[in-house]
Amino acid sequence: MIYFDSAATTFQKPASVYRAVARAMQTMSSPGRGGYAQARAAEEMIFRCRAAAAELFGVESEEQVVFTTSATHGLNIAIKSLIHPGDRVIVSGYEHNAVTRPLHALGAEIIVAGGSPFDPESILRSFARAIAVGADAVVCTHASNVFGYILPIEQIAALCRSARIPLIVDAAQSAGILPLDLCALGAAFIAMPGHKGLYGPQGTGLLLCARRTQPLLEGGTGSESLIQDMPEFLPDRLEAGTLNVPGIAGLEAGLRFVKTVGPQRLLRHEQALVQQAAQQLSRLPGITCYHAQNTALQAGVLSFTVQGQDAEVVAQTLSERGIAVRAGLHCAPFAHKTAGTLDTGTVRVSFSAFNRMQEVETLAHALRDAGR
Length: 372
Description:
Blueprint: E1 2-3, H1 15-27, H2 37-56, E2 65-68, H3 71-82, E3 88-92, H4 97-106, E4 109-113, H5 120-133, E5 137-141, H6 153-163, E6 167-170, H7 182-185, E7 189-193, E8 205-209, H8 245-261, H9 263-282, E9 287-290, E10 301-306, H10 311-320, E11 323-324, E12 326-328, H11 333-339, E13 346-350, H12 357-370
Parallel strand pairs: 1-11, 3-4, 3-5, 5-6, 6-7
Antiparallel strand pairs: 2-8, 7-8, 9-10, 10-13, 12-13
């Protein structure tokens, strides 16, 4: 099988990740619940994982690195810690439902800062206009999960800092390949999954915290057991219950892989694959690719449509040829509305460190054959 759905999860993992998960299941128990060897081993591994994440993402203290089950989990914590019913919240025109649904559920006033795909100046103008009117918070994705469009998050963060508006960054598609620095951005929170560009297992994620938080869950933490409120200090305040020790062990191995290979090298590899795919697919009759002319504006995601064909049918045809892609709206109707593809959806290919140019050529051949 050729796997082109890494924007959903990087199915192919480094061998070290598989080994770390198995080793944790065989040698580690619950951290903070005992002084015996298996509990201590879990505690030490979890500290190493926090420290690795803090170093990679510009976090001052390991305690500010909170383990979550996904980026969605982290975004819900961040949004519900900062935002209240009726608050005015500015979002980009490329947000995932993991952002917009919690805001809708809270009854926030959602202001969309639109902008054409791969046109950072247009979205910066929209954010500047919206911020000038005033807002209680800004929530912005770093890279679109539909189009791979890298938003100008540094400049958006600067606008937020100037206006003293807290910023939440959705790094679901950028963590592991794009520069992310909590302190430099001055963000209130950055949420990311462990199972995408960090090459960890599903069921893992990180929330980087620079503001006071509100727990989503209450329960045991292994600390402050006499009090009935959740501890005030991080990470315990947000980590009720038993942590996913095997998953976190895999995530630590994934972080080591990213650090060893280097985020910039991983990004360049994915961008080269996108460029190759866009060139080959655009030559095929009836195919429209949504991609940047300036490759620096696009991460490892490419969407396309086939004239006269349903996106889901195209994806199924590719699946029957052993090629895994994603079709539809990708849980991001805001992005499709912005790009004008809300009625049709798109077929999405998304890459990882484990994809090769030959696989892109196979994709082009499959689409060519299907169109005959």
